[in-house]
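Bench notes, afternoon.
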Amino acid sequence: MSFAERVRSAARGYAALDRRIWTLAAVRGANTMGLSLVLAFMGLYLVTERGVSGLHYGLIYFTANMCQALTSTYAGQLSDRIGRRRLMVSTLLARALVVAGLGAFVLVHAPVPLLAAVIIVSASLRGGFEPICSAVVADIATPADRVAAFGLQRIGINAGWAVGPALGGLLASVIDYGLVFFCAVIPLFVSALVTARLTEPPRTAAPSPAAGDRISLRAALADASSRGELLLLLLCALVFSTVHIQLFATLGLYAKSELGLDESHIGLLYTINGVLVILLQVPAVAIIRRLTPDRALVLGCLIYSTAFLWIGAAGGAGLLRLAVVTATVGEVILTPAQESTVADLSDPSRLGRAFGLYGTMQMIGVAFAPLLGGIIFDHLRKEPMAMWGTLAGLAFLLALGYARFGALNRRRLQGRPRSGP
């Protein structure tokens, strides 16, 4: 079968997905759009208008990301107990109210510690939606359809990011920034209403709490630690988040300070990333199916490594754009392969726990990414090949980690019993 035929087959696979998977992708798109209307500019507001230092700004978002990491694990496990839809709807409604409250505090110039507390609560509530939504996708999709199903979720999220910041910037230019928060509440409420109408799929009955199914991070980690291949996959997910966020946490800073690009050129880089995620996801599914997810994980990391080397070699916007295109190709291959693999390795009765723990690892990586990028930037900013070569080396080591995971996973499939977190 030619590659074009594989792409057409992948497109037909998308069309055949359960309508609930399409609905969840739309919900994620609307939710992301609403939040990015305002949160994409929150750091700028805190630093430029409220006089928050870079250190304090970093501490606020580090705390917010770590709280979201913890919430993901507990919410995922709770969804295995009480059901997923109820928890997702409650979280969306609660976050809509929190976002409205944050807008009111911005309007009245509330104290920065109060704003920080509300930002942390908002991030924590995100941990009560995203991993559960992924668990629902895994509940609904057949194993053969999971790569396409998770790819569709990435399309929804990136479509939201493509629209949200641009629309938010436009609104903030004509009305007070605090009022934009109330505009953001609308898609959050719509997302909650649409989610409430979903038919929740039947789930495999989970063991009773007496059988050891405790809601705790320690219990989830202990279960994962008993599975070498699963623990390695989760650790790789943490490192991948740290690597991936460098395209946002470090690239913009480097492009402006060292290459002299202005905000419009930097914004275009992120627009390229968001648009290409949407356009390339179907061909990426064809590639993953051709390679198998295990090998796709390795390929995705090698592509990231190449992209970082090109950033180091870039003297201007042209090669930098090519590097972002390359990194995006790695992203659309690696991310759905990773999520579908988490589902495939996990106990069907504990998919909430599995994706909660996966979300925890991701957010720990996100929390530490700016710190790692900042250290590398401070010490190597005048030696671009050394700076970006260090990150390329980290991506290459991650490829080796995924290769080891693939070997362990194939050994499991050859005869070891299947259990999950």
